[in-house]
Request: fold
Amino acid sequence: MLFGNTSKSVLEEVEKSLSDKFDKEVKIEKSGNLGGGCINNASKIETTAGTFFLKWNARCRPDMFLREAESLSELKKAANGKIEVPGVYAAKEVDNTPGFLVLEYLAPGSSGANTDEILGRGLATIHQFENEKFGFYNDNYCGSTPQDNSWKTSWPEFFRDNRLGYLLGLIQKDRSLPASEMKVYDRLLNKIPDLVPAVSKSVLIHGDLWGGNYMVCSKGPALIDPASYYADREMEMGIMTMFGGFSQRFYSAYNEVNPLPPDWEDRNPLYQLYHVLNHYYLFGGGYSSQALRIAKYYV
Reply:
């Protein structure tokens, strides 16, 4: 067996999980490390039951892989075959051994003439998958940052308390914003009910959809590394527009299936604010001044 640098104990536990999943003995025949991840270790594993993608970590939040598995499963259900989402085969929390996630292996592919259109229509389809409330079944993570997904019936309340307010609380504990800046954010939080719509449709979003969190596989574009919850779909565009990478062809295809309101770009920087603050929480630096500029604009 060729195991590369993947922990032998992880592979043994993966074999057990896959054996339970398929109700037969599954053995790993080969494991090769994959690059590209900034948080977790990643491997391609070839087994007697097929080829899978494995990521694992001993130094992350204990339930991180369980929560990611939930997001992927919900996205796959919502996508209804319109866009690829890797299937989940096993997930384990971190305890005295590393946690891991075993997914369908999506062979890398190259962009085709209609890749952007498939991605746009696929995301638009996911954004039609509704829930009665805003939130998710469990708290999860945007990158490594905890997200409070406790259910709310009001989108302005959820965005204010579960997203901006909760994240500002994390930042205050970790980095402590100056009192003058917190006054600006407090004023913004008070204005949120007037700034974002009381949308009636709560729909599933990927939650962290930037250019690095989708891939082009042999079957077409695929969504990976989600931080899903039910929200106003405009929240998705916050992170998507922050770094670019989505063409006009993407947006045209999206609007064919699920047209955005004509004034969505007026609110876009406000939804970006959550992700700018998250980048400040994770990385520090100039994200603080960028976030403050957005907050001041809306107050």
